[in-house]
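Quick note —
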Amino acid sequence: MTPDHVFTALASPARRELLRLLRDEGAQPAGRLAERFDMSRPSVSEHLRVLRDAGLVSETRKGRERHYRLEAAPLMEIRDWLSPYERFWRERLATLTTVLNEMEDDDAPRHDG
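Predicted structure written out below.
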């Protein structure tokens, strides 16, 4: 999958919540996942399909049920892609902290005696 597919899948709050549930609670049948949402079961199934197509979940059949499991590898690729931006913002925030500390020092009352 391409990063575009993953970003598209992550754009939906419902899909992010599905991923969170799978991360926190492990593999689950689609029906159990659907019970957690205030939307129709077919809508949840569509969200799961988008996640599957993006490689973020895998699907296995157990009898009539479809079970879904989190697949974290595509998230690692996104993390790697985002890493330079994280460094960029950390550097900017460190610079801002330095400037604010210098401003605070300049505004401190002076006691000449």
